[in-house]
Amino acid sequence: AALTVRFLTRRFIGEYGDMEFIYSHNLIVDGREILFHIWDVPNSQEQAEEGTSEEKRIQWADSFVLVYSICDRASFNILPLKIRFIKAAKEGQSQEKVPIVIVGNKRDLHHQRVVSSEEGRLLALSLDCGFYEVSAAE
């Protein structure tokens, strides 16, 4: 949620509950106006829900940004399963590759890091995804 709000408002807010939100945002990209609809789902909520809710989100979306904390190994370890689930649901229907980006957040907390940048890059490479490390706080 912090990364989404930072993208939308350019502000950092550090504390969020486990709430699900859908945001809409217009942005000019390469001279074209793009309307983003962002369905922001906390990881803890995803794990507690039935698979049908997650399937609904996957069918709704055109692309995916999966965020993990570099300070939380469990948030990283769940990514391969989620990415395979997304690809099976989206790419099984068409021949088009679904855009997926893996984002390691909390780069500013490097002293608490438990997932290396190299691990993130290798996972993204092995699953044919984009990869970035960022800090929503910075």
TrEMBL record:
Keyword DNA repair in record: no
The molecular function terms of the Gene Ontology recorded here are: G protein activity; GTP binding
Q: Which family does it belong to?
A: Belongs to the small GTPase superfamily. Ras family.
Looking up SMART domains in the UniProt record yields: RAB, RAS
Which InterPro entries does this one have? P-loop_NTPase, Ras-related_GTPase, Small_GTPase
| Annotated PROSITE patterns | RAB (PS51419), RAS (PS51421)
Name this protein carries in UniProt: small monomeric GTPase
Q: Which SUPFAM superfamilies match?
A: P-loop containing nucleoside triphosphate hydrolases (SSF52540)
Alphabetically ordered keywords of this record: GTP-binding, Hydrolase, Nucleotide-binding
Native source species: Fregata magnificens (Magnificent frigatebird)
Q: Tell me its EC number(s), please.
A: 3.6.5.2
The chemistry this enzyme catalyses reads:
GTP + H2O = GDP + phosphate + H(+)
